[in-house]
Amino acid sequence: MKTTSGVAARFISFEGVDGCGKSTVMDQMSAWLQAEGIPHIRTREPGGTVLGEKIRALLLDPSHGDMHPRSEVLLYTASRAQLAAQVIQPALAEGRWVLSDRYTDATLAYQGYGRGMDRHALRRIQDWATGGLQPHHTVLLDCDLRVAFQRMEAREGAPDRMEQEQESFHRRVREGYLQLAAAEPERFFILDAGKPLAEVLDSFRDNFWLPLLGRIRREAG
Fold it and tell me: What is the C-alpha separation between 131 and 152, in angstroms, rounded?
């Protein structure tokens, strides 16, 4: 469905290892959409709904260090199923863009590559849970793990259960994200998130937002 400005609604997910800076880039994307008068919503995974936020608390609680990987997958997927049905699909149907901090690629990267679980089985579960709903665009923020860890250390509060994983786990996640992006170059946009913030946002504007803005303006006629 199109927005009141005549632009087709788009679903954009933001992915990357913990500490890559997704929230900051999403903030900028939201500001640009607002400046163009394009209605949109922001959400996150796990979470984004009342049920999802309760699941998020379970998943990220460091006291659940003994959580089985299958339980982890099913909890993430339950949150995602609720989010897709209750938030994302209705917003798109109403012509509103959706910006999401993580989506199905996170499960493939973290549980598939990070945990070593069967990625084909994970894809089937995600397709079933979301009714096959996929983002139109996925922005992958990629940076060296040392940079990501430094940013996480600078945050207030204790690291959550996923952030506490060993460096080798996060390295597999990062490599997994890059493999996912290489397999779907038409959907993924890889943003070098290891540079200073101003340079990251300039690159995001010049190489993702401005080309996309040009396309949506042509759509609007």
Answer: 34
Do residues 1 and 93 make contact, with C-beta atoms less than 8 angstroms apart?
Answer: yes
pLDDT, residue 86, reads: 98
Token pair belonging to 201:
């946002």
Element (H, E) at 122: helix 119-130
Q: What are phi and psi of 191, to 5 degrees?
A: -110, 125
What's the number of CA atoms in the CB half-sphere (13 Å) around residue 17? 32
Is residue 142, in this structure, part of any structural domain at all?
A: yes
Encode 56-99 in three state secondary structure. HHHHHCHHHCCCCHHHHHHHHHHHHHHHHHHHHHHHHHCCCEEE
Is residue 87 assigned to a domain? yes
What whole-number distance in Å separates Cα of residue 130 and Cα of residue 78? 10
What is the reported pLDDT for 219? 82
Taking the C-alpha atoms of residue 42 and residue 154, their distance in angstroms, rounded to an integer, is 25
Mean pLDDT of the chain: 94
C-alpha dihedral sign at 59, 65, 71, 72: positive
Query: Six-digit token pair at 43?
Result: 């959400």
Domain holding 168, by residue range, is 11-220
> Could you tell me the CATH number of the domain that includes residue 171?
3.40.50.300
- The answer to whether 170 and 17 are in contact (CB under 8 A) is yes
